Amino acid sequence: MDKNKVKLGIAPIAWTNDDLPELGAENTFEQCVSEMALAGFTGSEVGNKYPTDPEELKSKLESRGIQICNAWFSTFFAEGKKEKTIEKFIEHRDFLAEMGAEVIGCSEQSYSIQGLDKAIFEEKPEFSQEEWEKIAEGYNQLAELAAEKGMKVSLHHHMGTGVQTPAEVDKFMEMTNDDVYLLFDSGHIYYSEGTQAAVENLLKKYVDQIAHVHLKDVRDEVVKEVKEKGLSFLDGVKMGAFTIPGDGAIKFEPLFETLEEAGYEGWMVVEAEQDPAKANPFEYAVQAREFIKEKTGL
Ligand SMILES: O=C1C[C@@H](O)[C@H](O)[C@@H](O)C1=O
Ligand SMILES: [Co+2]
């Protein structure tokens, strides 16, 4: 892969998990970003221990050779919370623009069960046609707002949300304008569908509309248990459903090939939330970096 086109980041979620604050409560921001840099990454997303002042954050990241490439943003269009979503989006966009990021990764969180104690394979929301229309209209507006700062808005398909399956991603992409992009997360599509083919097909279908990539691997045996026992998404995370690329069931070689052939330009971010007490974040970061180097030359 071309170093001038593809940059490598890593998400802080392996050190401190915002969805499960008890995971990694002992890890500091400084430790997290120092270890990211030491492992050979140049980009990061934003965690809840990061300084909120852009100047302070920039200076602490610059001294480590790291830059912010994206940060999660939750939208609530289907629930009818358009005004509040837009107001918060503008704040988030301005913060990311100041940090030099070019992409905003959003997730439609209306009725999401990803943080709730509900069976992840049984109780996810499904949107009505009227709700889909609200979502499409909302994202089209977010794309225009992002463009004001030269940025792209992208949708993170995610377990436990109304945009989880390939059919739901299709519906979202069909209903939104061409300036609304996809944030491709290998782990979430594999978790949802359980096959390598589903991961490869989704990537191939939308590769020209993908603005950001999350590299996540999945442990089949953990997902099997989550399904059989009717467990929640966060139960699965604590049990080790996710891991770094190369350590689980997904074959990454065809994914890297598809991205390279399509001339993908942007960030690939290792995002592997595990319990840091069981999976040392620095050691896993080093292992992920070596795997990516071996498979892509980056
Ligand atoms: O991008 C992500 C952000 C996390 O908060 C989320 O739960 C994780 O699974 C993910 O893919
Ligand atoms: Co992700």
UniProtKB/TrEMBL annotation:
MF terms (GO), sorted A to Z: manganese ion binding; myo-inosose-2 dehydratase activity
Metabolic or biological pathway: Polyol metabolism; myo-inositol degradation into acetyl-CoA; acetyl-CoA from myo-inositol: step 2/7
Catalytic activity: scyllo-inosose = 3D-3,5/4-trihydroxycyclohexane-1,2-dione + H2O
Cofactor(s) this protein requires: glutathione; Co(2+); Mn(2+)
Top EC class of this enzyme: lyase
Source domain of life: Bacteria
InterPro entries for this protein: IolE, IolE/MocC, IolE/XylAMocC-like, Xyl_isomerase-like_sf, Xyl_isomerase-like_TIM-brl
Zinc among keywords: no
Record-level GO BP terms: inositol catabolic process
Pfam families given in the database record: AP_endonuc_2
Enzyme Commission number, as recorded: 4.2.1.44
Manganese listed as a keyword: yes
Keyword tags: Cobalt, Lyase, Manganese
Xylose isomerase-like TIM barrel domain residues: 37-294
Role noted for this protein: Catalyzes the dehydration of inosose (2-keto-myo-inositol, 2KMI or 2,4,6/3,5-pentahydroxycyclohexanone) to 3D-(3,5/4)-trihydroxycyclohexane-1,2-dione (D-2,3-diketo-4-deoxy-epi-inositol).
NCBIfam families: myo_inos_iolE
Family (UniProt): Belongs to the IolE/MocC family.
Protein name: Inosose dehydratase
Gene transcribed to yield this protein: iolE
